[in-house]
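Lab notes, practical 5.
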Amino acid sequence: MGGCSSALIISMCGLVFLDVSFAAHYTDKWAVHIEGGVHAAKSLTEKHGFIFLGEIMPDFYHIQHKKVAKRSIYASKSHQVALAAEPQVKWIEQQISKHRVKRNVNFNDPKWNMMWYLNRGHGLDMNVRRAWERGYTGQGVVVTILDDGIERDHPDLRRNYDDQASYDVNDHDPDPTPRYDYTNENRHGTRCAGEVAAEKDNLICSVGVAYDASIGGVRMLDGDVTDSVEAQSLSHNPQHIHVYSASWGPDDDGRTVDGPATLARKAFFDGITKGRGGLGSIFVWASGNGGRDGDSCNCDGYTNSIYTLSISSATENGNIPWYSEACSSTLATTYSSGSSMERQIVTTDLKRGCTETHTGTSASAPLAAGLCALALQANSMLTWRDMQHIVVMTAKPENLRAQDWLINGIGRKVSHSFGYGLMDAAEMVSLAKNWTTVPKQQVCEIRYPEKSRVVPPNSRVTAALYSTGCEGRNNHVKYLEHVQARVTLTSDRRGEIQIFLTSPMGTRSTLLARRTRDTSQDGFSNWAFMTTHNWGEFAKGTWMLEIENGASASELREWVLVILGTKEHPRHRNVTPETSRMNQQFQSVYTCAGESPSSRVCIECRVGFYKLGSKCVATCPVQYYGYVEIVSSHNGNSNKTVATCRKCHPACNKCKGGRNTDCFECNPDYILESRQCIPKEFIESMSPYKFLIWFASIVVMLFVFYCAFRLCPQYLKQQEKQSIDQQPSQEMSMPPAPPSPLQNTWSTCNHSHQPVEQGF
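Output from the prediction step:
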């Protein structure tokens, strides 16, 4: 009988435990409405044994009773009765611990699960979900697509469609609806628009990066594209439109050198000086699809412009796409299509359709425009140069594979294929929120003194030019942004020419790679090759221009170095607790041991800063933790303290160490349990077992009752018979019986109806 009773009791205790686990829990705290002010409320509640925790809102207070369990399935009415009887008390309620979960971004749009570039996590997407979770969805920002029109009545676009951001330049009317034909050749603009602002949660197609942004379209490619057509499109309603996205340019055939003409150049300049109330229009441009033909985007005057954010592509696996053009003017990268085995971009399509096959850098630029819209929602006062600084500072080179990654003079990784890396939405909005406008742009030009330099066949010529950055003048540039080499050069075969520029801090940019298809004898006439690779470096020092020739004759007629940047250091933000988690890599050279030419690359950091690669940062960024160690000097005679940033475990977003058990905050696909990040899939897969556990407990209980009332009486009769048969020997040999464990067990369960206190 003892074994059966014990099983019964254990089963009942298990059921009580399950009740505690699944029921709502009362806490040891109350909310109370007391009139008469804070002092009267404090005095009255303490009189009845409560601890006064403070005011919730006027005349409503938070109180606690130390004799009540912190967590119980039963309300404690007895402790509040006396207080509730006081005339000043108008209302009182014991507080219940409610289960609340963070709302993960999960949409009902049918193609959402296929949008790998937005929802993969683990650093393999553009971190858009984190920006959304913080409330940044593009609301209040206007983006327009300069293309072949957009389908304004598309069910996934019409809610966000903005007629003030739209126009038909080709037919001179306000309606940008594309011209339909059997080939659907004018689908490009509608596809780009959906990437930016397709509506969420409407059971239709896809989700835009900035799904609450206003979207417009300028139809300008379905006809003769002239200088005036381009200028009118670039100038459309610049006080209303914030971001212009363009996925077009000159032929990507590996032989064309072309760019904006007189009116379009003026439209760009007016846009950055007058657009958005003087803050400057944001122009986002696709870097080009001429990779298969060996093209260079530095021969495209739109992507090569300082006024545009030139955006390249990365494949699903982080590789360089077959169509990608490598050049030094590329600022950053977003995802797009790749090989036949890799996924493409999901977006709206012509005739109210939906596609999973949007491709090329044409798909990358609209994604970047949407990311810029999120940053503008976070801070509508960003200038056009602020946006470029933010993109440079927050882009992530990790997980992008290229052979040409280099570290520039201030320790930042940059590539001709990917720029500064993959754009990061969450980092952009965080940095934008507390941004300090960068100082005024300065322009310094230095002309190469020699009138001409012959470049013999199959040779290389180097032209050195020393620059002070116009020091001592009103246009002094100390800290670099864009750098241009304005070149006039003759050649019998232009495609054989290669041009390189090396900065005073040692960063070598490929301004022009060999283009085997370019057989032109036109050379270059005052063409401004641009590089972004020197961003943040010092301007002062010797610049080296290298020209490498093939078998043809060539001559350098003129070279002007144009350096653009600021005299003062761009102090981008105040380092506050809210923003200190952001990457502070731009300040690296100012936290090293000095600013002399010999020490402009951080080898060690000043006290109070952590070493992160070749940079020094005041606070380790997200997914890193600070690690301090004592190391011996080279000669072994002394020790020094070295502070570095080390990588968290891949599952962690914030951590105190490199193990999975050192986490403070997890990446989106994990849940924090006892400082360990556990995959959500594992947690969710366990949820059905709650019912199985409950069901199993009931089965056990029924079995115990069956045992107690059917089997146990027979067992007792047998025991009694054996006891009678053996009674003489037992009386001689058995010691006094110890207290039965059953008594303690029953005593424990007998009081299980009392409130159970469980600490957190």
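Observations recorded by the TA: The domain at 442-566 is CATH 2.60.120.260 (Jelly Rolls). The two ends are 38 Å apart (CA to CA).
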